[in-house]
Amino acid sequence: MKDTVNVGLIGTKFMGRAHSNAWLNVAKFFDGSVPEMHTVAGRNAADLAEFAARWGWANQSTDWRAMVSDPDIDLVDIATPNHVHAEQAIAALEAGKHVVCEKPLAGTLADAMAMTEAANKADGRTFVWYNYRRVPAVALAHQLVQSGTLGRIYHVRAAYLQSWGGPDTPLVWRFQADVAGSGAHGDLQAHIIDAVRFVTGEEITTVEGAIEHTFIEERPLLEEGGGSEIAGAGAGGSKMGKSSVDDAVLFLGRLSGGGLASFEATRLATGYHNANRFEIHGERGAIRFDFERMNELGFYDATNGATAGWATIDVTRGGDGHPFADAWWPDSHGLGYEHSFVNEAADILAALGGGEPVVPLPDFADALRTQRVLDAAIVSARERTPITIDYDTPGGQS
Ligand code: SOE
Question: Would you say the pTM of this structure is higher than 0.85?
Answer without folding.
Answer: yes
